[in-house]
Amino acid sequence: MPEQDDNQREFDLRWADRAEHKEPSARARMLAARWKHNPPGPVPFRPDPDHRSSGRRSRSSLISTAIVLGSVAAVILLLGYINFRAPY
Fold first, then answer.
1. What is the reported pTM?
2. How confident is the model at residue 1, as a pLDDT?
3. Which of 30, 39, 79, 87 has the lowest CB atom count within 10 Å?
4. Contact of 24 with 32, CB cutoff 8 Å
5. Residue 31, in any domain of the structure
6. Per the structure, how many domains does the chain have?
7. Considering the domain boundaries, does residue 12 fall inside one?
8. Cα separation of 72 and 79, whole Å?
9. Does 53 map to a domain?
10. Rounded distance, CA 14 to CA 11, Å?
11. Domain assignment of residue 83, given as a range
């Protein structure tokens, strides 16, 4: 009997996929209703260059990079030390 239910379910999914009209999601309906009265403004593909510092990396970016690279180096050294100490 479960085999027949699976076949029926597969048929229902194929029937639903072939439907000519598909109802939009709840979020799509909500946004359409909101934008009907208050359409969104244009959004540029790239941000304005004013948001960046003038060609120099910020201090926090350099600190983050140093922390990540330092952590990777520490893990590599620790694994090498463990491998060196392991008896063969």
1. 0.35
2. 46
3. 87
4. yes
5. no
6. 1
7. no
8. 11
9. no
10. 5
11. 58-88
